# Entry
Amino acid sequence: MIEEQETARRFDGRLRSELEELTAGVCRALSDPKRLMILYALAEKSRAVGELAELIDVSHSNVSQHLGVLRDRGLVDAEREANRVIYTLRDTRVVDAIDVLRAVMTDDLDRRRALRAG
# Structure
């Protein structure tokens, strides 16, 4: 009975609300490989749109669209410098979290290969 109450507390309305917000905001922003590349590039240093476009080999307008999503979701900040806008990763833990997910994926792929190899 006590275990059930503890479980119910963990799955309370607050957790549900936070997870809904997470999936609607951050997870949606992370659902595109180009946006992930942008986040990795910004983890190294702040950059302008043109530099990001060249680095990940996409058009300026496409990078701007992706940066708009990332900015709207609170993952990057933008600051005007003269005639350029410089983008900065707001919190490096986002890239750390992506690295953890990549490691989980790699471990799972390795496990599957080992099972197939017998």
